[in-house]
Task: inverse folding
């Protein structure tokens, strides 16, 4: 009889622990709001999510350009950005993409930080802080990359759950074209191909 009583005690204890476990899995209420339910994102979280996606979009362009061999620390890149007349007044597609992605990154970062208009001096300072330039050592280039990635992570954290609700829009692949003597060509692997 004592053994039976002991088993009943064990069953009762197990039942109490099971009820505690079930209760812990139910959403609790705090101040009338169910914990575990997703709350609506605030305006600041939505803004941070939008800025984070813009930064990621820019970072994706930098990575794509780098994979294609574009080097923003090269003399050519410097010349195209500072002295375009030496390059027949035209910048390469890669240089244009780099500069556009840099503007997107700086505008998103500084607009988030200040909310005000960005002065030319602030813009130039941000360019020097985040983007590789002629004369930067590999260590400095790596440090600037880390700076950009940290800004992205900071904004993702500030965005909270709102970050996952905004899709990242990728840059569409558009073939590079040029016109020579009224004939259009598109860039293909290994050279140029006449467009019919």
Result:
């Amino acid at each position: 009889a004592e053994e039976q009583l002991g088993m009943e005690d064990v069953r009762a204890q197990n039942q109490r622990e099971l009820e505690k476990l079930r209760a812990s899995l139910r959403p609790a209420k705090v101040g009338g709001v169910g914990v575990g339910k997703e709350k609506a994102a605030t305006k600041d979280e939505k803004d941070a999510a939008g800025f984070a996606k813009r930064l990621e979009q820019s970072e994706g362009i930098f990575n794509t350009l780098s994979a294609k061999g574009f080097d923003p620390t090269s003399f050519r890149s410097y010349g195209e950005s500072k002295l375009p007349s030496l390059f027949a007044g035209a910048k390469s597609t890669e240089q244009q993409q780099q500069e556009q992605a840099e503007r997107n990154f700086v505008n998103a970062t500084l607009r988030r930080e200040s909310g005000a208009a960005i002065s030319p001096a602030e813009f130039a300072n941000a360019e020097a802080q985040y983007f590789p330039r002629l004369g930067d050592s590999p260590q400095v280039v790596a440090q600037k990359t880390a700076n950009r990635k940290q800004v992205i992570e900071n904004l993702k954290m500030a965005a909270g759950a709102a970050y996952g609700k905004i899709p990242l829009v990728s840059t569409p692949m558009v073939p590079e074209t040029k016109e020579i003597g009224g004939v259009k060509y598109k860039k293909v692997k290994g050279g140029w191909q006449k467009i019919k």
